[in-house]
Amino acid sequence: MTTQTPTYDPARASRTGRVMGGGILATIGAVVALGAGAILAFGGSDGTFSSGHRDVSTKTAALVSEPARINGTQDVTDVLGHPRVRISADTVRTDRNLFVGIGPKAQVERYLAGAPIDTVRDFSVEPWNLDKSARQGTAKPKPPATQSFWVAKSAGSTAAIDWKVRDGNWRVVVMNADGSRGVATMSEFAVKIPHLATIALIALIAGLVSLIGGIALIAMPSRRRDQRPSDRLYSQYSEPQSTVAPTA
Q: What is the predicted pLDDT for the residue at 139?
């Protein structure tokens, strides 16, 4: 009993390599294109991600964000441009003006010490929901606009700030302008990353090119060969040799 030794088929090996390489290239291209497309869909052509105008209210004296520690903004700026935070709040109560401010964590906490507040731990856009935790208190804060520690602030029936992000440990505060309880607003929160849309567009194009290239590799037909090299070698030695009779 003899065992047939498998022969190496260059055409089949080449085809397998193209399918594997094309599959990897197409997968990477699809992932990149989908990610870039999502960024453009949500961030638009100017790289702005917005919550839209939403009900942002509390029965306490202030809505306060969780502390946001920001480091390395220069590294981000070099690539994406300088990020900006935009907050706009419209009052729902015609007898109350609003205040919106961003301040250092430690000074915001000293200012609001003893006052009842809601801390916003998280939020979702669709459906809109603010995940808040309440802290009880009896103190009434002084009118927030009188404080000097804010790095960005605005007050009025519409309070709006446009802040260039910088390193630090910050908290965002939404209050009534007189520091009273019962804050009722329709507010919008947005983050703008200037160069993100351009980078996403380049990534989208590169992803689509990779996807198309990968599919083309998979679909490329193999070059057909009439006879494998091993077959030709075998036939060379198996052909009968002609003999010539010696002459006298």
A: 93
